[in-house]
């Protein structure tokens, strides 16, 4: 039996997933948590084979925090189950060490088969994520440079698009404000724009945020 911890903000997601897998022969939803701060305790108290987590989970400030969970609990596989753009966040999540990325528009049947494969040690990527990773390796076209944004750059861009200032982002990510300014400058250069308004608009047009 595969033991699963579901970490999500929405009670309806917890209810729906737990109800679907109630009588599943291979999968047992053993823990339901609504905050990233609860994850370490949940993984310490129970043997969890797969952690299913939303990247927009309350308290999860950076994808780098997933790296810490992977390092601390190497026997627990992580599956990201999120509404965020797969081509951008999926590839970055895989680079961070998670075992798979599944969009929330997927059927619960697909969630089940994905959990089973990840528990077996298989890395799960859909075609859009595979293409994105391939482009990051091979693409040199300036129009596709956004695909080469680092995890940190994507995170900073996401917070900028939400209207947060440099000092706010520095507090959220635990980084120096000058470092945030450096990331902002790199983003302007990589997306070939000259100001914050154009940066955010281009990011939205490219579906990065």
Describe this structure in words.
It contains ten helices and five strands. The protein is α/β, with parallel strands linked by helices and 209 residues long. A five-stranded parallel β-sheet has the order 2-1-3-4-5, sandwiched between helices. Strand 1 (2-7), helix 1 and strand 2 (27-33) form a beta-alpha-beta unit. Helix 4 packs across helix 6 (127-138) and helix 7 packs across helix 9. The chain is elongated, with a radius of gyration of 18 Å.
> Which word captures the global form?
elongated
- How far do the termini sit from each other? 37 Å
Q: Count of DSSP helices?
A: 10
Structural class: alpha/beta
Query: How many E-type strands?
Result: 5
- Tell me the major beta sheet: 5 strands, parallel
Radius of gyration: 18 Å
Strand content: 5-15%
Q: Order of SSEs, N→C? A: EHEHEHEHEHHHHHH
Biggest β-sheet: strands ordered side by side in the sheet: 2-1-3-4-5
Integer average pLDDT:
86
Low-confidence stretches: 138-143
* Fraction of residues in H or I helices: 40-55%
Q: Which descriptors would you attach to this protein?
A:
209 residues; alpha/beta; 5-stranded parallel sheet; 10 helices; 5 strands
